[in-house]
Structures are given as C-alpha cells and as structure tokens.
Specification:
The structure holds three protein chains of three kinds. Chain B contains nine helices and ten strands. Chain B is α/β, with parallel strands linked by helices. In chain B, helix 7 links the parallel strand 7 and strand 8. Chain B is globular, with a radius of gyration of 17 Å. Chain C has ten helices and ten strands. In chain C, a hairpin with a 2-residue loop joins strand 9 and strand 10. Classes of the chains: A mainly alpha, B alpha/beta, C alpha/beta.
Chain lengths: 377, 231, 259
C-alpha cells in the first residue's frame, strides 16, 4: 500500500512503453508495414536510449555532468564485440581460434584478457561490471575529493579522450582504428538474418523497458528525493547527515552499467565497434540527446535519443556534411528556445498562452478611488 | 508621490495580492505590517518591477511604473533593499557601494561620507570581498548601497534583520534625519513594532494579500494592530 | 542545577580567513539541557563559531569535543551531523524545489546510507511524524506546496522544523526568529524552551527580548573573543556590552517589540 503511488508512476508509463515497443512495432513488422531494415534501425536507437537513460539519471536528476559516458558504452560494446569476434574466429581466412586482426599483427596466442570473453555469461557480466567498477574507481578519486561541476566534466572528457587514444593503438589488441568487426554469428545462428535481428530487437526493447521502469522506480523513491536535493543544494544535504560522495558514486556507477548494457546491445545490431564511438564527440552527443528531449524526465531521454538518431539517419542520407551543424544548432536551440526540451514544450506553450490571455484582458486603471473588495477582514 | 491602485498580483495560478491601494507621500515614512506570508515582500517586489502585476497601476510622480523595467525604475530614483543580505559576494565592499551609483546612472559620483558615518564598519573593510563579511555586515552593506545614490523613494524589506542593536539605533537616527530633510520617502516592511512606531508616519496592515487596516501612526488602535499580528 | 557535563566543548579555537583572525583562541562550552544565547556585534565571529562546531569550517588550532571524547575536527560534516548536531543556517536554506513534506522527509531521524535510502518509504508512511511537526510550525495547510513558495519567515520555520525532526542532541540555531512578528517570536521561544528540556540549544540572536525570554545564559562575542558570559541581566548591564553592541541609546531594547 505504501508503495502504490510509486508503483503507479512506474507501471503506467512502463506498460505503455512495453505495449508500443514489444507489441506495436514487431506487429507492424510482421504485417509488413515496417521493414526489417527499419526494425533493426529502431533496435539500435533503443539500445542508445538506454545510454541516454543513465545520462539523465546522473545529469537530469543528480546534477552530475559527465562528458565521458561513451567510455562506459564502449566497455560494454567491446565486451560483446570480443565475444562475437571469438565466435567468428576460425571461420575466417586464417581458420584459427584468434581474431583475424591479431593474426595480421602476428599475435600467435589469444591474450589473457580476451579469454573470459569466450563465454557468453562472462561476457555479459563483464559488459556491465567493467564500466561499473571503472566508474566506482573514478568516483572515489573525484567525488570524495569534492571535485564537481565543471572540473568533473573536464576530467571525464579527458578520460574519454585518453580511452579513445588507447583503443586506437594496435598494441592494445582491441583492433586498433578498425575496431572489432565482421561479427558472423551468435549462438550458432547467423547474425545477418532478419530473424536474428528481430530477436535482437526484442531483447533490446525488453532491456529498455526494464531499465526505464527500474529508473522510474528509483527516481520516484526516496533515492530520487535525495538526488534532487543533492542537485539543488548539496551542502545543505551534507549538513542533514547524508554521505554525498557515496550517493554520487552509486548513481555514477549505475549510469555506467546502463551505458555498458547499451553498448552490449548495440554492437551485435550494428555489426561493428570502433574507437570513434567511444571518444569525446559521442559523449557530447549523449548530452545533446538528453538536453533536447528534456532533462530530468526519463521519457525525455528516450525521446531525445530516438529522435535525434532517427533524424541523423534521415539527414545524413541526403546531407551528410550538414549533420554536425544541425546537431550543434539543435543544442543552441534548446538552450535559447526550449530549455526544458521537447518534453517541456507543451508546458511552455501553455504558459505563453496564459500570458497572452492575461495581456488581452488588459489591466484597468479606475477613475476614482474604489472601495476595497470583500477579501480579508 | 507613490500611488498604488487596485494592484492584483499572482504567482502562477494563485493570487497573492488583491486590490491593494497604498500611498506614500513625499518625505514620509510608511510602514507595512503583517504576519509572515501575507504579501508584504510581494508588494515591494512588484513596485520594484521584479514581479508583474495582473492588474492595477503604480504611479510614481505621475510616471506609470508598470510599463518600466526594474532598472528604469531604479533610474527614476527608487532604491530597494530586499530581504536577506543581497550583496555581490565577489565584489569588494567599495565596488558594491559604487554599484549604487551606477544604478542611478551617476557612475562618476562620490560615495557620500554620511554612509560611512552611519556604517563605520564598512569603512574599515573597503577592499574586503562582500562574501567574506558576516551576515550582519552584509545587511549593513546592502542598506548602505541603496542609500548611496540618494534615492527619492526607498523600499526597505526588514532592514534590521540580523543587525546588532546599536547599529539599529544608528539606522533609526539616519532615517529620522532623512525625514527631517524631507527629500526621501520610505516604504518600510518591519516586524519590530517599536522601531516602526518610532519612525512611521502612516501604517498599513496587511492580511491575506490585502490591506485590512490603515491610518496615521497616532490614530491607530493598538489592539486592532495586535490582532492582525497575532498568530 | 546538578552538574551534567558539557555536550560540546571548544578548546583554544582559532580561525583565520584571508589573513584576518575571525576567532582568537576561543574556549567555549555548552551544557546538556542548557539554552545558551550567543550575541555580539556583526562580524564578531558568532556564525563562524557555529560553523566550527558543525564542521563547515576547520579551525587552524584547537579541538572541538562532543560528548565525552569525540573530537569533531577530525570528522566530516555528515558524520558530525549524524553524531547528533542539527544546524539551522542564517539564511534559510531549505530545498526550494521540493515540497514541505519532502523537505521534512529528508531530515527525519533515520539511516542515511545509500541502501537504506533505496528501500526507504517516501512521505506517506511517515506522515505520522511529519504532520505533527508541520502542525507545530503552523504550516500544515502548505504541506504539499513547494518550499520555494513560502515567505521568508515561513522558510525559517520550515528549517527549524527540519532540525527538530532530525532529533539532534545539540541544536545550533542561527537567528531563528529573524523576520517574525512578536507573537511568532514568543511561540518560537516557547518551542525552544521545550526543546531545551532534553536537548542542548545554542542560539545566535540579536533580539534581546527573545534572548531574555528564552536563554539560561548568554555569551557575548566581540572581535573573535569572548567578552563576557553570564545571565541576561548581568550581560545587559555590562558597560562593555552596551558600548560595543547594545548602543548607548539603549534604555529600552531597540529590538523590543512591545506594543
């Protein structure tokens, strides 16, 4: 009983989302209205939406601006990518149980850190655990020292850049600039058939609905209250006895795990993971998705992620050179015109309407000193 | 000099001021009394232009204020000391005071000596950043800054809050002197009845967003006033 | 009165800001069950003294002993708070975007760890603790309004309420009655007197009438040192206090809201 208001806030939007994504879209696909190509595209968008959810948790609710979420996304994507590569090994040109690019680089045995990724459960676990642990370590080093705000953002950006540099190097045995690619199969089933991709879509959609409901539950609970207060006035919360650093580390690690999940779902659907997807620019894009959709609403993060990526697919087909400008322009537009994002537009329009209505019924200046109206006394 | 008629103000959907009528004659001190939350601060904010009215007019020497922005109203000669020590923490005491001149459009002027006589502690820390002053010192600075451009109408929201008793007496003396000189009118929100009583020429008592009692200081019944201030 | 032992003891506390000494080797203590008023000119160091106790400011020298032997200078702010020290700040610092109920929920005396928060109930089940607090403060009708919509004085009350529900052993209240009418001050004074029966209360205030109504003892701080300490009457008659703080025209209190 005591939890029912929270459960309502979680179950109602969650169910709507579930119906739309788990039933609606696949149905359209079965009926032939939505092609396999577009379903797969949607699958990728939904994977990215999980990344955006995490970002909204830390930025929209806790007020922590991280410009390096793509690092954690990359951890998950590379983890899954490594598993998939090992699945495909031995089926390539050289017929050996190590990835092709290592053969080219004259690496004769599988490096130790690749070995756990031969097993699916381990790969999945590591896809979530590595980003979470990395985030914890980073959090302990920064939040306990009260590093926050702009300084924290700059540090995350530096980390993103460093990670990108690292992954580009062939010595890292992560495929260098080419990344990990040519994924052939998953559980013995070919990755390129529509049925596999449809299953991948369903798994992604399920993960998204689950993540969304988990996040919604989180922000509707007392934790959500603490996070909002932390964003509002961190010092005051400290003097109410809350160990602020612990909370920040927790939420940062959670967002990192979500980012890892996002990457792990993204890689098989796209078929490739490269360093260009884990650096500074992709991290900034996540911020734009959440800002455009509407910070601190969760549903805004979903809208922003899906909307902008859909727009990009559309526009880069016709005007590839214009995309960075459009993206930048979107961000400027959000800041100037609709700071609450897409989700906040109905409210903004309502307020503007109210103001216009108020000024239409113009203020009256009476000719004589009227007697006070009946309020009070 | 300041004439408010039929002022109605809302915060979003809820109305906070209902048909307020108020007059501040030149060179006089008008005091606004009332419990917490009745709308006193809202009224001052509206006069200064920080809150738009839904209806009504505010005239200052025949100039309709509601069409002016806050900085334009400041340049007309209205000074405002909001509640709660609103000074610029990153500027020094001297720079905060000079801003008072800039607000009036007289940035080349000098800070009057009288300010330092009333608030001697400010003179000892002219180069100290505002944020490093104690709360009470900041409040003194806020009042001093509003007095620097010699406004013709001064809006004071609980000016004595957080100020030590001896300085309060000094502030009272200053206001008495300003009254005698007749150049400045003051609209004062105060909780300390004694302070208000010694200074005010006219009193308005507010309750639930409207004026319920008003009159000249001497004429008002003590009990009537007390009734509206009781919890 | 039987000797109960101090709840907090400051020993040789020195604090400097920007080369300026705000507190100079101050020795200060508050007894359990005492309501102590801390008065003094603006800039004397009163708020800084409270800051030192609750950990906001770390002293350059000296120790702060809480209870029998806990040195607060080695602890972080939230640890100090959890030991049983509740602070109300000079300018009301409530969470403006949260409702009154939500503000009080955060302040309630319960575990503060991440896990307890994750699985703790919000609001409704704790209304039995929050509603009486709101009623005492006279803010029950505004329970679900955002704190930012409150008037200045109401925010003071909310913050006092937040400290009360924390159930601390020591209350640190910085100007609790600023912006209140005489009646509201009296009510607050009565509230504090009730609290002082089983807690220690340290109040910084300028309202001498309020101090006289509530305080057991008064400490006068001036330029970072203790000028004198004693009963309200004794302190009010001390010529040094009149000189630096009360003012020479001070026959009737400047802050006397008599009517």
């Amino acid at each position: 009983m005591k939890h029912s208001p929270a459960w309502k806030k979680v179950l109602i939007p969650g169910s709507i989302l579930a119906v739309l994504l788990l039933i609606g879209l696949p149905l359209l696909n079965t009926l032939g209205v939505l092609s396999d190509y577009y379903l797969n595209l949607f699958g990728k968008y939904l994977a990215l939406a999980i990344l955006a959810l995490g970002m909204d948790l830390i930025w929209g609710y806790a007020g922590i601006l991280s410009l390096g979420q793509a690092i954690f996304f990359g951890c998950g994507a590379y983890a899954m990518g490594m598993y998939l590569m090992l699945q495909s090994s031995g089926q390539g040109v050289y017929g050996e149980r190590i990835p092709d690019f290592m053969v080219w680089n004259r690496v004769t045995t599988l490096p130790l850190f690749w070995k756990p990724f031969q097993y699916f459960p381990l790969a999945v676990l590591l896809a979530l655990a590595i980003p979470a642990v990395a985030a914890c370590i980073f959090g302990v080093l920064t939040f306990r020292r009260r590093v926050s705000g702009t300084y924290f953002a700059i540090l995350t950006q530096a980390m993103a850049f460093a990670t990108w540099l690292m992954c580009n190097r062939n010595e890292m045995n992560l495929g260098g600039t080419n990344g990990l690619t040519d994924f052939k199969s998953l559980f013995g089933v070919s990755l390129n058939t529509p049925s596999t991709l449809r299953v991948l879509y369903l798994v992604t959609a399920l993960c998204l609905v689950g993540s969304f409901m988990a996040c919604k539950w989180l922000v509707s609970s007392k934790m959500g209250l603490v996070l909002t207060a932390m964003r509002d006035q961190e010092q005051r919360l400290r003097f109410l006895g809350y160990p602020i650093a612990q909370y920040k580390i927790f939420i940062f690690a959670l967002a990192a795990a979500l980012a890892g999940l996002s990457g792990a779902l993204y890689a098989p659907q796209v078929g490739i993971i490269t360093p260009s997807q884990i650096g500074v620019l992709p991290s900034l894009e996540v911020v734009v998705w959440v800002a455009t959709g509407g910070r601190g609403t969760l549903i805004g993060a979903l809208l922003g992620a899906v909307g902008i990526n859909a727009a990009r697919s559309l526009l880069t087909a016709y005007y590839p050179e214009w995309w960075p400008i459009i993206l930048g322009g979107l961000f400027v537009g959000v800041v100037i015109l609709f700071p609450d994002g897409l989700v906040g537009i109905p409210n903004q329009l309502r307020q503007r309407l109210r103001r216009t209505r108020a000024s239409l019924f113009e203020r009256t200046v009476p000719d004589s000193f009227p007697s006070p109206s009946g309020r009070g006394v | 000099m300041l004439t408010i008629r039929s002022l109605n103000v809302s915060y979003g959907d809820s109305q906070v001021l209902w048909d307020v009528h108020l007059d501040v004659p030149p060179g006089q001190v008008v005091c606004l009394l009332g419990r917490n939350g009745v709308g006193k601060t809202t009224l001052l904010k509206c006069i200064m232009g920080l809150l738009p009215p839904r209806a009504g007019s505010i005239t200052f020497y025949d100039q309709e204020l509601t069409v002016l922005s806050p900085d334009e109203r400041a340049r007309c000669g209205i000074g405002y000391v909001p509640q709660g020590r609103d000074i610029f923490p990153d500027l020094t005491v001297y720079e905060n005071l000079r801003l008072g001149l800039v607000a009036r459009g007289v940035s080349n002027g000098m800070i009057p000596d009288e300010i330092f006589q009333r608030f001697p502690v400010l003179q000892t820390m002219l180069s100290r950043k505002g944020g490093l002053l104690s709360g009470g010192q900041q409040q003194q600075l806020a009042i001093a800054r509003a007095l620097v451009p010699q406004p013709t109408l001064l809006l004071l929201d609980e000016p004595t809050e957080g100020i030590q008793p001896s300085i309060i007496l000094d502030i009272e003396e200053s206001i008495q002197r300003l009254k005698q000189e007749g150049h400045m009118a003051i609209l004062l929100v105060e909780q300390y009845l004694d302070f208000a009583r010694r200074l005010a020429d006219h009193i308005y008592v507010m309750e639930q967003g409207t004026i319920v009692l008003e009159g000249r200081m001497q004429e008002l019944q003590e009990d009537a006033v007390k009734r509206y201030l009781a919890v | 009165m039987e000797k109960q032992g101090s709840i907090v003891y400051l020993e040789d506390i020195t604090v400097s800001f920007d080369g300026f000494q705000v507190l100079r080797g101050v020795d200060f203590y508050v007894d359990r069950g005492e309501l102590r008023a801390l008065i003094g000119p603006n800039g004397a160091g009163k708020t800084t003294l409270l800051d030192v106790i609750c950990g906001k400011v770390k002293p350059a020298t000296g120790r702060v002993i809480f209870g029998d032997h806990t040195d607060l200078t080695t602890l972080e702010e939230h640890e100090i708070t959890m030991l049983g020290i509740g602070r109300k700040f000079q300018t009301p610092s409530v969470f403006k975007h949260l409702t009154l109920v939500e503000n009080l929920t955060l302040a309630l005396h319960q575990p503060r760890g991440v896990w307890s928060t994750l699985f703790g109930a919000v609001g409704t089940t704790q209304m039995d603790k929050i509603a009486p607090a709101l009623a005492t403060l006279g803010l029950l009708e505004k329970a679900h309004h955002k704190a930012g919509s409150l008037a200045h004085g109401e925010m003071q009350w909310l913050e006092i309420g937040m400290v009360i529900v924390q159930e601390p052993a020591l209350f640190l209240l910085d100007e609790p009655v600023a912006g209140m009418t005489k009646d509201e001050r009296e009510r607050t004074g009565q509230l504090l007197q009730r609290l002082a029966q089983d807690h220690a209360v340290l109040v910084v205030e300028h309202d001498m009438e309020f101090v006289r109504q509530t305080a057991h003892r008064v400490t006068v701080l001036h330029e970072g040192s203790i000028l004198c300490e004693g009963s309200v009457d004794m302190v009010q008659r001390d010529p040094r206090v009149v000189e630096v703080y009360l003012g020479r025209g001070h026959k009737v209190d400047a802050h006397d809201p008599q009517s």
